[in-house]
Specification:
11 strands, GTP-bd, nucleotide-binding, GTPase activity, about 35% helix, GTP binding
């Protein structure tokens, strides 16, 4: 029996759109636009991993196919993952989230930015590109900025090095931090004061008394802004919790005698045009739960993890004792629901999402630097 969902049918083989097209269970060849970009299957037992270094790496950048990488019959490239992600998301209900307080915050924040000596933009280290506000550059203009990639403990050393190299080549000052444990906060505080040090030099030249440096902390919801501020202050001055939308108003706090910090609520575009980015926000819990269908998001996460050499089908099979070919994430969610949650797909989906967020598949980034 098929179950009618908005614009789609769900049957035993997975999610099917009008016209019989499969959304997640792609057992046939990929569309021509994507398949034409894929190289032919390798004839040997190695795969070429582009831009990835890890255990078992040989001198020429190839990896021997073992149990951890079974199912990889083509050259692995992050562009392939992004292409598939676009394919998987374009037929889903759009993920949109814009609580009322964000519109008010955005207006107030743009006014406060005029008073800033330096701006600290916080992003999620797992998805630095997806947690970059598209209007941030225009808001800041020539104002000095420090980029903070928070949750560095949730990505691998290879991921960290890749992003550090990428931003260094662009001349962008980047600090990796762990807002929960305070790593990176001392460096951040020193850098903020150093960048804005010219403020009081100019004030003295004008015969004015020195004042504290003003630094604004901005970024998407739930990327760890308030936790970072609390760690800088070494006391809990700003409300913080592991969910989006906790901070709802701007708040100035003093850090010593020479630095003032503005903690701000998360800001997000009124409309997210890049749905691949929106799915990654949902996976990383950087957007409200009511904005997305957990089963859809978990199904896509399963398919993404199955393609990553550091995870693969074997890691999913070992954790849940369920077979997967990496092509039908929705079927995987349904099997897990039947096995552990009395066929409640929603609970099964949240288990998979929580396992990823807690590092049960290892600490991995879902984005790599653009080339």
């Amino acid at each position: 029996m098929a179950t009618q969902l908005p614009g789609m049918l769900l049957n035993s083989s997975g999610l099917t759109l009008a016209g019989g097209r499969s959304l997640n269970c792609r057992k046939s060849q990929p569309p021509a636009a994507i398949s034409s970009a894929l190289p032919p299957p390798l004839s040997s037992s190695t795969i070429q991993v582009v831009g990835w270094k890890g255990a078992g790496e040989s001198g020429n950048g190839s990896l021997k196919l073992g149990n951890d990488f079974e199912g990889f019959q083509e050259e692995y490239d992050w562009n392939d993952v992004e292409a598939d992600l676009y394919h998987w998301t374009k037929t889903l209900r759009p993920v949109q989230w814009y609580p009322g307080h964000i519109a008010k915050t955005e207006k107030e924040l743009k006014e406060q930015l005029k008073l800033m000596d330096v701006v600290i933009e916080v992003r999620d280290a797992r998805i630095p590109m997806s947690t970059s506000h598209p209007q941030m550059d225009s808001w800041l203009g020539n104002r000095k900025r420090i980029l903070v990639l928070n949750r560095e403990d949730m990505i691998s050393t290879a991921d960290r090095n890749a992003w550090a190299t990428y931003y260094a080549k662009q001349g962008i000052r980047v600090v990796f931090s762990n807002g929960q444990l305070g790593m990176g906060t001392l460096k951040l505080g020193r850098l903020a004061k150093a960048l804005a040090g010219t403020v009081n030099i100019k004030r003295r030249e004008k015969g004015l008394l020195p004042r504290p440096v003003r630094a604004g902390v901005v970024g998407y919801p739930n990327v760890g802004k308030s936790s970072l501020v609390n760690r800088l202050l070494k006391r809990r001055m700003c409300p913080a919790a592991p969910r989006p939308g906790v901070t709802r108003e701007l708040k100035w706090v003093r850090f010593g005698k020479d630095l003032e910090l503005l903690d701000s609520p998360g800001i997000i575009p009124m409309r997210i045009s890049d749905q691949a980015a929106a799915i990654k926000l949902a996976i990383c819990d950087d957007i409200g739960e009511r904005s997305y269908n957990a089963t859809d998001v978990a199904a896509i996460l399963v398919q993404m993890l199955s393609k990553l050499p550091t995870v693969g089908n074997k890691a999913l099979r070992d954790r849940y004792k369920i077979e997967t070919d990496g092509r039908c994430g929705r079927t995987f969610v349904q099997k897990l629901a039947a096995q552990l949650f009395n066929s409640d797909n929603n609970q099964a989906a949240f288990r998979i999402l929580q396992d990823f967020r807690k590092g049960k598949f290892g600490w991995i980034a879902l984005e790599q630097p653009p080339r």
